[in-house]
Specification:
Structural class: mainly alpha
Order of helices and strands: HHHH
Helix content: 55-70%
Distance between the termini: 38 Å
Strand content: under 5%
Shape: elongated
Radius of gyration: 20 Å
Number of strands: 0
Length: about 90
C-alpha cells in the first residue's frame, strides 16, 4: 500500500473518530453554573483541545490497526462480506 493511501485512510478514520470523542468528558456552561453572556447554556465551559486530539489519535490508531490486520494481513474486504454472512434463501 502506498504512503498516500495509508495517510488518506488514517485521516478519514481520525476525522470520524474526532466526532465520536468530542462529547466525552464535556461539561456544559449550565452544569458549571458559569454561563457567559451571549452564549447558549449548552456550550462547553472549558474545551480541552489537547486532550481531545490525543484521545482521537490513540483511538483512531487502534481502529486503523484493526482495519490493517483485517484487510491487509488477513485479506478480508468488501468482497468477503457475502462469504462471512451468506444469504439464506
Amino acid at each position: 500500500m502506498q504512503l498516500f493511501s495509508i495517510l488518506a485512510v488514517y485521516f478519514i478514520i481520525w476525522w470520524l473518530t474526532l466526532f465520536l470523542v468530542l462529547p466525552f468528558g464535556m461539561r456544559t456552561q449550565a452544569e458549571e453554573n458559569d454561563v457567559v453572556l451571549g452564549t447558549t447554556e449548552s456550550a462547553p465551559s472549558k474545551f480541552r483541545v489537547g486532550k481531545v486530539m490525543l484521545t482521537t489519535t490513540i483511538v483512531a490508531a487502534a481502529i486503523y490497526a484493526a482495519w490493517w490486520v483485517l484487510s491487509v494481513e488477513l485479506g478480508y474486504g468488501i468482497d468477503s462480506v457475502p462469504q462471512i454472512y451468506p444469504r439464506f434463501d
